[in-house]
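Hi W.,

Here's what went into the run:
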Amino acid sequence: MADGSRSGTTLARSNRRWFWTFVTPFLAGLVVFVYVPLLWSLYLSFFDARNTVTPTSFVGLGNYTYLLQDRLFVDSMVTFIAFALFIVPLTFACSLALALLLQRITVLRAFFRSAFFLPTAVSYVIASMVWRMSFFHGARFGLTNTVLSSLGLDTINWLGGENSWYWLVLVSLRLWLQVGFYMILFIAGLNQIDPQLYEAAALDGASAWRRFRHVTFPLLRPTSVAVAMLLLFNAFQAFDEFYNTLNTVGGYPPYARPPLVYLYLISFGSGAQDLGIGSAGTMILTLVILVFAFFQNRLLSIGADK
Amino acid sequence: MALTRRTLLTLGGGLAATTALAACGSNTGRTAAPSASPAGTPAATPSGTPDPDAGRPALSQWYHKYGEDGVEAAVKKWAAEYPGAEVNVNWVLADYEKTLAAALLTPTAPDVFEYANGPTLDMIKAGQVADLTDTIGSSRGDFTPSVLDRLTYQDKVWAVPQTVDMQLLYYRKDLLEAKNLTAPTTLEQLTHVATTLAEGGDIGGFFAGNDGGIGVLGLLLMWAAGADEMNEARTEAAFNTGDFHAGIAQFKQLFDSPGMVKSASADWSDASPFINGEAALQWGGMWDLPKVIAAHGENFGVLPFPAIGGSGRQVVPFGAFSACVSAKSANVTAAKNFVKWLWIDAEDKQVEFSDAFGTHIPAKPKLFGQAKQVAEGPGADAAKFVTDHGRSNALFWTPASGEAYSTALSNVVKNGADAATEFGAAAEKVTAELARVA
Amino acid sequence: MRPSRWGTALAYAAASLLAVFFLLPFYVIFRNAFSTQQHLIAPRWNWLPNQLDTTTLQAVLGNANYGVLNALGVSVVVAVAQTVLTVVIAMMAGYALSRWRTPASRVILGMTVFTLMVPAMVTFVPTFVMVSSLGWISTYRGLIIPVIFSAFATFLFRQQFLEFPRELEESAAIDGANTWTTFWRIVVPNAMGTVAAVGTITFIGAWNAFLWPMLIAQDPQMRTIQVVLSQFMTSQGIRYPEMFTGALIAVAPALVVFLFLQRWLVQGVARSGLK
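Here's what came out:
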């Protein structure tokens, strides 16, 4: 073993020195730019910190209780828990489906793979622009509304909020942006499955669905777990696409407000930045993410062979 | 271990590490470098970084991006002309309030910055802005009283108005006449007019923003229905009345009618939908008046927002972006002097600011005559609306109150929630806010 | 086992249809950039652009007030520097965490994984204030340094190195090379797939970043292309052709980089093995 085959404390010490040489830049940066601000933010969450980052008035859990009773915050958390429960399996299924689809294709496979993967390179700002201004514009010249009126139907004010159609806009936007990436992860996972296993199953007379259920899916477990984790973290941290799609000159509407957008508006809001509440909110959000991650891990570990 | 837990994970340790890094950074954001738009600054701007021993303090001034062309060039020219300091203008493109909010928390806050309707109550109380009463001095009487009132707290003035903006209802006189309709003075009339004009599908009815008007019309609906934000003593919300609920119900009728245009190629702050025929009536800003005149000539008129219900009244909102001085500035006196030079003394520049880029009303009534666009024509009509029907946001109406109110409004109008419940919750929030900032 | 012909035909049909939907937004950007405003808001949706010349492009690029060219330059510098630094730092840290199983190593790994779960927003305001106190506002330092410590990249590299056979390192050690040289001469060249993968992800993330550059780059000269692009969305008088020309300009470099490097990305991900 590279780190222990030659015995002696000199070696152990010099080896440890190498460890620190390699890890220090990263660790230093992590501490200075993640952990110190994180702790500072935690500190702020226990204070009444308006328009200042060096507050003086301690309020204990006051900010937390305020938020948990705040209709808008609770609404946004509940909405987003529902959103996460919906979007995670949906994205998972779509990415996996695309990966499986690509497996069946031999001609021009690279082209199709690129087509599905390409949106990953597009910024959320630009994608929101296209969805909001061209595809789903509420006026008659948007693509979807043109299609609707040519079919003789009424146009829909997609992002107006008097209906729930904005979810379709946001979900389709997210899927477009993200599915390619997770598809790649699944492709990698699929490629590691020994084809002979399929043949063996086929010889036993198993149909395509049964092959999938009993051979493919179980062997995809490590990839599935990773994908599910990433999707979960991502779902709760939604910001860019919501902000750029729904934000108007009149401000951000009270519906479809991800917790992060709400906290952002509180922390940097129009002339009244409440950083104590903003910090408390992000702590709560982090806790919720952790709880979900824990349970999701449990769920996906059931039946896993260590 | 070279790095102990103590140095790694304590707040002090982390910050100590950063002081070492600070030795590498010299840019605190207050660059005295010349402005970034070479094409637009005719006056000589200093090249390179000026000699710090030259004796002139360096000031940074922030503006938000104005939609009209030429504003940026003008303000930068004036900043360069100022003899008393080296003024660097920062023209913020997006999310002005958020970017400014973030900057004000840091040592690199701008020295002079504009803010819509002056600083918020929280900003004043947190000591983020400097008291400008002495700077204004005897000129206090020159400014339109209602405008200056908004910038006054505890008898001190906290900002200097730059120019006054207002919103109004643009309507197509020719289209109304063609269908024998009269200009609407009540909301019911507006609904009728909008629906009639929208029949046939050639043109839309009434447009007030891509959010259906919730954002821009919010407080107007309250005022037009005859309600007030709060009582005289400022101890509780005063808008949660039956008349008000009835008024909102009327607005919802307009919102749900085919006469309402809910989405257009631009938002309310841009008169393009009115200009290119997407809507026959639009609630827009006075700043677009020149463009509307250019497009429709004599075929349009302007109106205040119509009255709602029996105890209602017509109303126009006005507000003034006002110049504030950061209390944490290293050069507070220099900053105050600059503000005085530009926004109090230099009346020619004030007139130019109001008149040369879109239409705005000068903050001093004595300058009305010099601003051609408000001296006569639709501009004069509009200016008169401000005098007769003008209202401005209350200083004690905090952003949190506004947020609660507009959420309630959105839920009621867009989603049909019960007005009493929603506005009741909003009223509670407003009362709590008033108690907090009393 | 041969897949059914019918199933394969269906697969091709589905893939083709999906490809059209996936590529449509790119076409729309192109169409919008090369049309006039009136064409775009006409009551009927027009599939074809109507101004296939460089008028809007010249207007957008030539307008010094928009600052598009300048912003492109800033974005390039920031994205490249951020990518290189992130990869180097994460690579070294990932290696350390994969080869050493000391208590310290476990703690740091825990910290790294924990960071993945923390929303970036939690640290936003304090990080901003800290960076400002350091005097890094509107500097490349401020734009780049706070964001080059990627827990995700470190994690990916660690996973990759765990799979890396130690025989090569051992034989190098026997030949007298120390850990540092072994790392750079032997391990890294064999990990180029992951390097390309992480590099591509980082580059694209850096190129597309919006919020942090917006807050840091207060000086107009230091704005990145995404920030400049956002001006079109929230300013008065948005002209769609200009907006989408800006989008086209902003998306092109990312697409090019992506198309060239996606092969590595796919391979790198495959090799990193998400176990």
